[in-house]
Structure formats: structure tokens, C-alpha cells
Specification:
Oligomer: single chain
Strand content: under 5%
Number of strands: 0
Shape: rod-shaped
Number of domains: 2
Number of helices: 4
Distance between the termini: 126 Å
Order of helices and strands: HHHH
């Protein structure tokens, strides 16, 4: 009976060793998968930042293109062209809030010049 118990104990020990080896292999594979996922997450984050920066550049370029198109609509010898060039430079160098304020100020001044009779302007 002892030899049977001894063989059974040896078999259980062998199975335990095989199971432990399988678990160690699975744990190593899991660490590898986790490391790969973390690397991919870092790459994804980097790509998201690049996309965000490219979107901002695209928005800025579209805004510049719109300004250039507006400038092309005005005849080149006109004094409005000079004002629009000045406005475009202001819009390119200021923050968004300042840009909006400058645009509104310029629009009000221009509207006043268009609406006010010439005699009132000279006084």
C-alpha cells in the first residue's frame, strides 16, 4: 500500500510541477501582453496629441486662407484694403478675445464712417 501511495504522491507532485510550469508560462505571457498593451496605449496617446496639434494647425491655416480670400475681394487701391491688412495682422498676432474686440472696434469705426455724413466727419 505504501508503494501505491508513494506512486500516487509522485504523480501528484509531477502534476503540480507541470501545473506550476504552465502557470509560470501563462504569467510570463500575460506580462508580455500587458507590456504590449501599455506600449500601444502610449503610442495611441502620442498619436492623439499629434492629431490635436495637426487639427489646430489646420484650423489656423483655414483661418488664414479665409482672411486672404477676404483681402482678395477688396480692390487693391482701396483704403479699406489697408485696414483689412492691418486687421489681418492683428488677428494673426493677438489672442482670440483681443481679435474679436479689434474686429468689432474696426467694424464700428468703419460703419460710423459709412453712416456719418462727410461734413460731420470734418468737424
Amino acid at each position: 500500500m505504501t508503494s501505491h501511495a508513494s506512486r500516487q504522491h509522485q504523480e501528484e507532485t509531477r502534476k503540480a510541477a507541470v501545473g506550476k510550469k504552465s502557470l509560470n508560462k501563462l504569467a510570463a505571457e500575460l506580462r508580455s501582453v500587458v507590456a504590449s498593451l501599455e506600449q500601444q496605449e502610449g503610442e495611441r496617446d502620442s498619436l492623439e496629441r499629434q492629431c490635436f496639434n495637426l487639427r489646430q494647425l489646420l484650423d489656423q491655416e483655414e483661418e488664414r486662407n479665409q482672411q486672404e480670400q477676404m483681402l482678395r475681394l477688396v480692390p487693391s487701391g482701396d483704403s479699406i484694403t489697408t485696414r483689412l491688412h492691418h486687421l489681418a495682422k492683428t488677428l494673426q498676432t493677438s489672442g482670440p478675445v483681443q481679435d474679436a474686440k479689434n474686429l468689432l472696434d474696426l467694424a464700428y469705426r468703419h460703419a460710423d464712417r459709412l453712416i456719418t455724413p462727410p461734413t460731420a466727419v470734418s468737424q
